[in-house]
Amino acid sequence: MEEDKKEHWEQVYHTKNPDQVSWTQAVPQTSLNLIRDFDLAKTDRIIDIGGGDSKLVDFLLQDGYTNITVLDISEAALAKAKARLGEKSSQVTWIVCDITNFEPTETYTLWHDRAAFHFLTTQDQIAGYLNIAAKAVGNYLVIGTFSENGPEKCSGLAIKQYAEQQLQAIFDEHFEKVTCFTEDHTTPFATKQNFLFCSFKKRKV
Predict the structure, then answer these.
(1) pTM summary value
(2) Can you give the CATH number for the domain in which 160 is found?
């Protein structure tokens, strides 16, 4: 099953350009705003989960952050991002891994995930993700996922939609909600996808 999932995403990134996939953003403004709101030090560790060839890393580098990690299941996706960044790619740590198998060796000040979490559709997958995040996140968590009014599938795969209360309940044991809101993402094909974005702060033990 995991091999099938990896093959799916390798195929997507080998055969499609950014303007042919729904999640592409020219500027990931919402994610940037949420990250900037936390007023991180430029040396704080940031990880982008399921970052693929997203341009978030470009803008974080532009903002002066020096400790960025991008994780994705697809080697092809990360290869595209590295090619786009050129020499700057050496300033980033790249990890090819299914998030549910991730074994972090560092603590991240901020964990960002736009559009990876909603592909976890079983309780085991969700619980595994939460356990990993609880261990790996030192301070802040940002999740962007399809809302109740969002699509029921993405890239041909089933996803799990969320209401604010559902997402908050999943993370509540380890993280305190800071803010939640919904917004429409306009795809490269001019369709709309409704997202729920929530940011959280790690609870003190």
Answers:
(1) 0.91
(2) 3.40.50.150
> Does residue 24 form part of some domain?
no
Question: Which residues touch 29 (CB under 8 Å, ≥6 apart)?
Answer: none
Could you tell me the two tokens for 55? 């341009």
Structural domains counted in the chain: 1
Q: 3-state SS of 154-203?
A: ECCEECCCECHHHHHHHHCCCEEEEEEEEEEEECCCCCEEEEEEEEEEEC
Contacts of 72 (CB under 8 A, 6+ apart): 9, 50, 51, 52, 78, 95, 96, 97
Residues spanned by the domain of 55: 2-16+32-202
Separation between Cα atoms, residue 18 and residue 84, nearest integer Å: 12
Using DSSP, state whether 108 is helix, strand or coil: strand
CA 93, 97, 102, 108: dihedral to nearest 10 degrees? 20
* Residue range 124-131: mean pLDDT, rounded: 96
Asked, for residue 27, whether it belongs to a domain, the answer is no
Residue 22 belongs to a domain: no
Residue 193 to residue 183: CA distance in whole angstroms: 8
Does 179 map to a domain? yes
56-70 residue pLDDT tens? 999 999 999 999 999
For 147, which DSSP code? B
137-173 pLDDT, tens digit per residue, is 999 999 999 999 887 777 778 889 999 999 999 999 9
